[in-house]
Specification:
The chain is an alpha/beta fold and 433 residues long. The protein contains 13 helices and 16 strands. It has a six-stranded mixed sheet, sandwiched between helices. It has a four-stranded mixed sheet with strand order 7-10-11-16. α3 crosses α5 and α11 packs antiparallel against α12.
Length: 433
């Protein structure tokens, strides 16, 4: 059962000399098959599922899951064909599968049971004692012994070799990042829906701000809105970036700091809401001020916005992301902004992870910006522009864009303007989309 993601992966496997790839990281399994479950959110070190993709288009795409999880596949495919595969290999997960095999005489049949049994027709081989044994059996049955196989987890490769399927190991981590960072038409369509929700999330975040509000209540309100709209927040705080106040001074922090007092007139608030919807990350950033901003700060925001738009215009196929920071720096410098060196610009892919950087591992060091990567059509690029100058205060903005043959297509419609929050409302009623 071919899909556009598997077709792209197979093409790259063939060009790189792989006979097959075994994927066990949850992001890669979901990319290749669409399979996911709450088990992956437990963040266990040992994988609960795997996918096997062959370079040979005549061979099946194989999903490897616990036998007891057939019902999860049935649920995933209830409304649409979200989980695609040609063959299923099963293994035992603790004793869940053993227990599920027993027929309960007191339990009537159900739609879920019927759907799961229909999927059971795709199972090949016998249920194996663990995931490595199931992968080894599938590879052996399809004649992959002594062939070149990529793995995104070396321990799976080692276990498969011990189980009697020797092979020429290849690291597949970088390969998977290269294939995932360019989106399919279906993925771009999904992200347009994600973008509409991102707009609602950032609008709701702005609506919660007012003089006297407790920052912790703002965070809780954003989390509540996200969860009620099927968005999984980045964590209990909902906001990635932020800062705290030491007296009258805003102390910006690259990552989470706890608010230590109620917001006051003139306070600057950085709103970067992050969360996952339909497997894809929301990553939108805007700046707000409590009360009327000073003319000097409004001017700073507008200069940064114009610099941002100049960088956006360069998000074209063939451009290297390493060229973008200089554009922003030169614009701030030309307009007399103090300490333009405090402008932090990062352009990165986004999808199953918030940072998808198609460079050889490790890619999140200095090379991610200084070396950068060449932008390709159908990438989703998040452009992050964060100014940490202390004279007037911080000023941040971020948007996601789909790369086209021409101008980039914005995935978020929320204006890039400064959010101005007023006095406390007389009453507050939570708003849900």
């Amino acid at each position: 059962m071919a899909n556009a993601r598997v077709a792209r992966l197979r093409s790259l496997l063939a060009s790189e000399g792989f006979d097959a790839v075994v994927l066990s990281h949850p992001h890669d399994v979901r990319y290749a098959t669409g399979y996911h479950s709450v088990l992956e959110r437990w963040t266990q070190m040992e994988p609960f599922a795997a996918a096997i993709v062959f370079a040979d288009v005549e061979k099946p795409t194989i999903l490897v899951i616990p036998e007891a999880n057939l019902g999860i596949v049935a649920v995933l495919n209830r409304e649409a064909q979200n989980c695609t595969f040609d063959e299923i290999r099963t293994f035992d997960m603790l004793n869940f599968c053993e227990v599920s095999r027993y027929v309960d005489p007191d339990r009537p049949g159900s739609r879920l049971a019927d759907d799961a049994m229909a999927i059971a027709g795709a199972i090949r081989g016998t249920c194996q004692p663990d995931i490595a044994a199931a992968v080894a059996a599938a590879l052996a049955d399809h004649g992959l012994a002594e062939r070149t196989i990529g793995f995104d987890e070396h321990r799976v490769s080692a276990a498969v070799a011990i189980m009697g399927v020797p092979h020429d190991y290849r690291d597949a981590l970088d390969l998977m990042m290269r294939v995932r960072v360019v989106k399919t038409p279906e993925e771009l369509a999904r992200y347009r829906t994600v973008g509409k929700m991102a707009d609602q999330v950032i609008a709701h975040a702005g609506s919660l701000l007012h003089e006297g509000v407790d920052w912790n209540d703002v965070q809780a309100g954003i989390c509540d809105f996200m969860v009620r709209n099927r968005v999984i927040p980045v964590d209990e705080g909902a906001m990635l970036f932020g800062g705290s106040y030491d007296g009258e001074d805003f102390i910006p922090d690259l990552f989470r700091t706890a608010g230590n007092r109620a917001l006051r007139d003139g306070d600057i608030v950085i709103l970067e809401t992050q969360g996952v919807l339909d497997g894809f990350w929301i990553d939108i950033n805007r700046t707000a001020v409590i009360g009327t901003p000073t003319p000097e700060y409004q001017r700073l925001h507008d200069i940064l916005r114009d610099a941002f738009l100049k960088m956006v215009d360069m998000l074209r196929p063939g451009v290297s992301t390493n060229s973008l920071p200089a554009i922003g720096y030169e614009h701030l410098k030309a307009h007399g902004v103090a300490a333009p060196e405090k402008l932090l610009v990062v352009a990165h892919g986004i999808g199953l992870m918030p940072l998808e950087i198609p460079l050889p591992y490790p890619a999140a060091g200095l090379a991610g910006v200084k070396q950068g990567f060449i932008i390709e059509e159908d990438m989703l690029i998040s452009l992050d522009s964060l100014f940490f100058g202390a004279k007037l205060g911080p000023c941040h903005m971020e948007n996601v864009y789909a790369i086209t043959a021409g101008a980039p297509e914005p995935m978020y419609a929320a204006p890039l303007e400064l959010i101005v929050a007023g006095k406390a409302p007389a009453t507050y009623e939570p708003a849900f989309a």
